[in-house]
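This part of the workshop introduces the protein records we will be handling. To make this concrete, we reproduce a full record directly below:
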Amino acid sequence: MFRIMQDSDLSGRGMSKRHVNGSIVEHIPVLAETLTERIKLPSTGIMVDATVGQGGHSLVFGRKLGPEGIIIGFDVDNGAIQTSRIKLKELACKIVLLNANFSQISGQIRQQGIEKVDFILADLGVCSAQLADAGFGLSFQTNMPLDMRIDKRIKRTAADIINKTDEKSLADLIYEFGQDRASRRIARFIAQQRQREPINTTGQLAEVVCRALGRKGPGRKSRIHPATRTFQALRIAVNDELENLKKLLSSAPELLNENGYVAIISYHSLEDRLVKNDFKQNEKVSIYKIVTKKPIVPDREEVAENRRARSAKLRIAQRQSVE
């Protein structure tokens, strides 16, 4: 995860920096210390960073790997791949970076001539570098094109969904992926607005949602922006996030060595429920042993350092005997 920094704020803590729209974005890997306490990789270990991003988690674990160790990083954001390539280049271990979705993990790993790995990590959060970049069209804080494709190879944008989906289906989408009880009212206001003019920017959409809910900003009962759930629903739909997570989870057991680990950091209940249920089902049939009976969350100090970590939940499972 990330926060926007001034040059004077940057210290020598080994965190990566990326310039976005003239600002410096500093990478702060979420729950990194907790992960390294719970997961011990051998110096020859093979790690898959399913969401390599700016390379923060890979850097932490890569420092513990020797020349025979391997990190395989996935990311659909090619810009993130290039940033992490620079960040990780000094590590002693082998680095393989793939501009691919982690839903393709099985095929991609085997194309590298690798059958089994020791650790699979996925941090499912959207980073501040992407939120700040108008090219992604993710933020309701700044008016930008309504896109939301993390992977630019995807054809359908959020604007396509907003302007072309019938009102009922749009309401269902906002309710299912955004868990917003006001989804039908929001969809009705969107349908009325797009009859007057297309909704093509994040600012337009945020304004419509605020009107639908009768609020301009966070209220006393909620600290989140009124448009948060609608934007979450659209991002999930555009990037097929839940289906991709299901594919990652289903692929993990066959890829892990005995005693290998899978760790998932999620940021909303839809993701966390999928991870929780998958781990439980695999534990019942003796494929996994759940390491975290309850999800681990950041402490106050980490949240103060990185506010985007506040909703993070970490679950870890360990592969049992491989037949």
The radius of gyration is 20 Å. The chain has a mean pLDDT of 89. The beta strands are 2-5, 17-20, 23-27, 46-49, 70-74, 94-98, 117-123, 256-266, 288-290, 313-319. The chain has two domains: 2-123+241-319, 133-239.
